[in-house]
């Protein structure tokens, strides 16, 4: 399996936005160190999801602009370029099992969304 980027370990946390700034079923791009991260507030799962914003098929940082949906109970985002679907919980591409994006641990403290920095 080709991993586009390794999963980050949980350690330090960085505040990236207020929870009320995230609209349900829309993505938001945030900067975490030198990386662009796409974060999503997905209705129905009571969780904020964070994956790489980089679409390995188009070579562009666009996943935060993708269409959020559900395929067989799996929350996904469809790339706005070539329409591949990525599992928002695992980063796995549903159309190509050899491609998996990094995911980031997320927590919400006092209404502030935080991502792990490692």
TrEMBL record:
Q: Which UniProt keywords apply?
A: 2Fe-2S, Iron, Iron-sulfur, Metal-binding, Nitrate assimilation, Oxidoreductase
Q: Name one GO molecular function term.
A: nitrite reductase [NAD(P)H] activity
The protein's matches in CDD domains, at most eight in alphabetical order, are given as: Rieske_NirD
Q: Name the PROSITE patterns on file.
A: NIRD (PS51300), RIESKE (PS51296)
- Top-level taxon: Bacteria
Q: Which residues form the Rieske domain?
A: 14-115
Query: What InterPro entries does this protein's entry cite?
Result: NirD, Rieske-like_NirD, Rieske_2Fe-2S, Rieske_2Fe-2S_sf
| Pfam families reported in the protein's UniProt record | Rieske_2 (PF13806)
Q: What GO biological process terms does the UniProt entry carry, in alphabetical order?
A: nitrate assimilation
- In its UniProt entry, what is this protein called? Nitrite reductase (NAD(P)H) small subunit
